[in-house]
Amino acid sequence: MNALSSTLAMPRLDLHDSASLLVSDQEAQSPARASQSAKMATENLSAWFGKNKILKEISLPIREKRVTALIGPSGCGKSTYIRCLNRLHEVIPGARMEGRVLLDGQDVYTRAMDPVALRRRVGMVFQRPNPFPTLSIRDNVLAGWKLAGMRPERPDDLVERSLRQAALWDEVKDVLNRSGTSLSGGQQQRLCIARALALEPEVLLMDEPCSALDPIATAKVEELIHQLGEKYTIVIVTHSMQQAARVSHYTAFLYLGDLVECNTTDALFTRPADRRTEDYITGRFG
Length: 286
Ligand SMILES: Nc1ncnc2c1ncn2[C@@H]1O[C@H](COP(=O)(O)OP(=O)(O)O)[C@@H](O)[C@H]1O
Ligand SMILES: [Mg+2]
Prior knowledge:
Blueprint: H1 3-8, H2 25-29, H3 31-36, E1 38-49, E2 52-63, E3 67-71, H4 78-85, E4 95-103, E5 106-107, H5 115-121, E6 122-125, H6 137-141, H7 143-147, H8 155-165, H9 169-172, H10 185-198, E7 203-207, H11 215-228, E8 233-237, H12 241-247, E9 250-255, E10 258-264, H13 265-270, H14 275-281
The structure holds adenosine-5'-diphosphate and magnesium ion.
């Protein structure tokens, strides 16, 4: 059997099977297949704050309807990288970038691309849950629409659908008019995920979404990310290798602004190709 027919013969696996089974090695090892299924990609992406070069020529495909984890020691440029994907980097004074960021093969840094429209397609969830304190749970879900000056056709349906997708509906359906900040930290983070999902994004960027949560809330949000990975293209920054192993199909290791390697999560953790990756995952630094 050649490589392609053996790939086609791979059974479709349930996403709740072990993460290591999620992606065939053939998919990871064939660059042609990889670029075909890339929802986003960066090509030679470099980024600076003032004179400091933070990211160095990073070329990385981000696979469609897969979860890609970015790992690496604090300060290596993970947050900067994902901020370049939805053009949040450029709004920081003194920040600039070079290289290309592609969404469905289209350069997002052209004049034709409206950054606000881009950020609807490429949504973001931040480290600390940040619901609007003066808004109700319901209005928090709709906040992205309001900020964009738009109104969904059926707001109540959208609120329910988004909260269901964020695995929060059953917990809040009777208290939708309560303040968003009346919820627990883990619920607030799922509310922020619902707010992002309400804009019907294609890609979801998550910057250490569990770092402010306790272990039980973390487990819930991780389970949610795993489920959302069936429908959305997700990039998650995490400093927890266990979390990367639990939720992602692909993992990219960044070190001092370099992309050291990217592979299926299973391969990266079990057969790292680079000494620096091996040192990092075995806890020798970082
Ligand atoms: N607003 C900023 N101005 C100047 N330097 C910054 C800014 N934000 C981050 N940096 C620097 O950029 C580097 C990468 O930061 P960051 O992308 O936040 O790393 P990570 O998310 O991997 O911890 C760090 O050296 C950090 O100090
Ligand atoms: Mg960061």
